[in-house]
Structures are given as structure tokens and as C-alpha cells.
Amino acid sequence: MTTPSGCRAWAGVDDIPADVAALHSAAEWCGYLELATDILWSATGRRWRGSGHMAEVVLRAAPPLPGEPGWPWHQSWGHCRCYRGTNILGPSWALDWVGGHHEPNSIRLPHPDVTEVTSVTIDGQLFDAYRLDGAWLSRTDGSGWPMCGERTVATYAYGKDAPAGGRLACVELAVEFGRATCSDPKERGRCQLPRRVQTVTRQGITYDMLDDFDFLQDGLTGIYSVDAWIRSVNPYGIKQAASVWSPDLRRARTTT
């Protein structure tokens, strides 16, 4: 089987072991791989979303006001007083504002895992005098980015692939989802996913009890080999990547 187009997962359908591949179609395996990817992405602190994502962002020196539709914004973009709010045509700017406009030389793009800037336009014209440092986009001609009036648009790729261990964990978790939902009773019996109802025998008395799934609160799956990898890359169970703030970070400047 080949991986269907549009399948965004840490592993491909061709990574599914041959002895279970026939249990589902390629599209179904893609769904299980994407489900496993979502779970592992969350369990590992949202570090590897996978490569190939694209974004286009309009640089605006104004965060959305209360009640306005949201848009990407970072404090490095500044907050220009020429912004007049949103009307039926979109954000409104007083470009003749005499107090000057924010034009920072460096701005941080919305995603922290930017891998490539594919294009930048200013007033509809391609612009190439820039440098990418991590998620920071800097002009190299000594000028600042026009942040008012919807003048600057950046298109970029973001997302990083998981390491080899993550790919193996993704396949293993997807296989267990596939076994749990297949029509073959023998394969369903091999499923390693934790069961909600467990039979417990104590002091000669056998009874059923509900598993409280404590491992889910710890960001784990209940499958030993998968959880071992999760703990190897996220030993403290953080929920998202750490961020740093410093008064020395680059800020927006105002040009008059």
C-alpha cells in the first residue's frame, strides 16, 4: 500500500507491518497514523508537528481588539496608534497618522518551528533582502518592515519531523488502533491497548472494575514501548515547549 496524498503523520502507510496491513485500507491506516501522531505530538510537549506545513501571514502592528476576529500577532510587531479597528472591509489604518509608524527591523513569525521563508512581498512586490534566524525574520538593507496598511506579507514553511523513535512509536500505536477496530477476532485479541474493564481477583473473589486510566493524566498511552519513548524525550511530562522572555529581546521601533 502507498500513503494517500494529504496524509499528515509521523509515519507512512508503507511503514505498517505486512502481517497486519491487510486489516484495513490505506485510507483507514492513514487515519490511525494521524490519530497516533496527534496523541504523540501532545504527549511529547508539542515539539514535532511534522514537516510540510505552510502559512501566509500579513504583518500588522496591531493585536486584535476585543470582539474582533483573531489574527497572528507578536509583541515584536509593535502596536501602532494608526490602527482604527476592523470594519466590513477588514482592518482600517490611518496611514497619514503624524505620530509615526512601527517599522521593526526584525520580527518573530507566528510559528516557532519555521524552516524556510518562501516569499516576502511589500506592496505586492517581491522582496528578498531578508535573513531568517530561527523564527525571526530580519531585513538586511537597514530599513524596517512596513507593519501598517496590510503592506507586508510573508509566506513560510514550518514544522519539524519527529525522530526515528517517534516514527516507530507512531506505527506501533496506529497498529494497535487498527487491531482494536478490525473484524478479525484473532487480531483483536492481540490488541495491547488498555481496556476500560479489567477482571481482578483478590482473596479468592473475582470481580470486574473500571480502570481509571491514570496514565492518560501523565500524558502516556498505556503501551510500554510507546510510553518508554515518550518518557525518553519528555521525562517531566511538559505540555508544550518552553518559551523565554527577556527585556533584551528585540522590540518594534517607531519611524517618523
TrEMBL record:
Superkingdom of source: Bacteria
Protein name from the UniProt record: Head-to-tail adaptor
Organism, as annotated: Pseudonocardia thermophila
